[in-house]
Predict the 3D structure of the following.
Amino acid sequence: QVQLEESGGGSVQPGGSLRLSCAASGSIFRVLAMGWYRQAPGKRRELVATITRDGVTNYGDSVRGRFTISRDYAKNTVYLQMNSLKPEDTAVYYCYASVDYQGYWGQGTQVTVSS
């Protein structure tokens, strides 16, 4: 069994920054891709950013240039640095990890951007 523990969500004013973290633990042989998705009320879950085992990154159009994904391979942890936050970034952010060719989701962490 694999667990994903997320942290770093919260409330921030527009233009502010937050950093999310997600650590994978449990029965792990190899972590492949890791990433973040988000879901706002009444909307579908959408891609925020992903990073492969080789360090290849992919970003959703709405966050490219503002968010940066990174990874600590030794700790099986992925980070999401979010800068220049906008009210439309408000959502529940979910961590995703592909571990030994199976997908796992975190429980989600709320990010609220409001003045």
